[in-house]
Amino acid sequence: MTDHLFAAEAEIVKRAAGLPGAIAADLAVFGGVLRCGACKRERPVGDIVSHLSHGWPKCCGKTMTWVTGRQVAAEAEGEEA
Ligand SMILES: [Zn+2]
What we know:
Layout (H helix, E strand, L loop, with lengths): L2 H26 L4 E3 L6 E3 L3 H7 L3 E2 L2 E2 L1 E3 L1 H12 L1
Helix pairs in contact: 1-2
The protein binds zinc ion.
């Protein structure tokens, strides 16, 4: 019978379905903001899971750049120096 094959397939689908959430949880650690390269507008990174599944946020017709919390901190230090 092929019952074991269906079981294996179901397991793979289950793991794949959980993957974006796992990735997003890892990525969320970076924090930071999304920045438009054209108008320099910034917005919170927000729901990364949603971005990955529905498309990355855009501004001025361009995909926004993710500036991580570390990069934001580095920029702030650069301005102070
Ligand atoms: Zn813009």
